[in-house]
């Protein structure tokens, strides 16, 4: 089944290309939403969604009340990861996410504050009210991105931003190929989100690591319809050891 491309995605790609090519140069003010809607023959909400994604990627930003400005040169923009072309690419994305996001969740549990928890809860539960076949990937990504920000590691945040298209693509495919009612799918994902939220809230790094792993593994299974064999699995003591290391800054230092 061919993947439907949303108007906001097309517009996001167009605006991104204009930044990358220098047509929208660093420091320049981009046209107002109404003008962009008129020029591209779309509604303002479509334009707004594309601009929100550009802001989330750090490509544009507001300056007071004068509008949005380009924040980066075309040469400075992250190249990102190559597009998904087949099932093998999707499997690799899930494998990479499993390796990275489980650690992100563990660190978020250790480092998060009350403000982070509010954002994580809001993003995790938004799925109930806003998710549809077209927006499922975007809404789910917000939750994973909120977890990444709570890890207090800018490299994780940047990498998640670069993976956004691949993650959303996979989530939309899950939405298309999943058997059963959409409401059941949302309820299932909400339960998985709640397990992660609970572990991060309790500052239980081991449980957060495990809950995120379960969520990503189940997302992969929902897409593929079968389990992949486990070729290698990290020791269950890894997160506890890492937590112990971060809490004891002098561990591993040699005395003079």
UniProtKB/TrEMBL annotation:
<keyword id="KW-0804">Transcription</keyword>
<dbReference type="Pfam" id="PF00392">
    <property type="entry name" value="GntR"/>
</dbReference>
<dbReference type="InterPro" id="IPR000524">
    <property type="entry name" value="Tscrpt_reg_HTH_GntR"/>
</dbReference>
<dbReference type="Pfam" id="PF07729">
    <property type="entry name" value="FCD"/>
</dbReference>
<dbReference type="InterPro" id="IPR036388">
    <property type="entry name" value="WH-like_DNA-bd_sf"/>
</dbReference>
<feature type="domain" description="HTH gntR-type">
    <location>
        <begin position="5"/>
        <end position="73"/>
    </location>
</feature>
<keyword id="KW-0805">Transcription regulation</keyword>
<keyword id="KW-0238">DNA-binding</keyword>
<dbReference type="InterPro" id="IPR011711">
    <property type="entry name" value="GntR_C"/>
</dbReference>
<dbReference type="InterPro" id="IPR008920">
    <property type="entry name" value="TF_FadR/GntR_C"/>
</dbReference>
<dbReference type="GO" id="GO:0003677">
    <property type="term" value="F:DNA binding"/>
</dbReference>
<protein>
    <submittedName>
        <fullName>DNA-binding FadR family transcriptional regulator</fullName>
    </submittedName>
</protein>
<dbReference type="GO" id="GO:0003700">
    <property type="term" value="F:DNA-binding transcription factor activity"/>
</dbReference>
<dbReference type="InterPro" id="IPR036390">
    <property type="entry name" value="WH_DNA-bd_sf"/>
</dbReference>
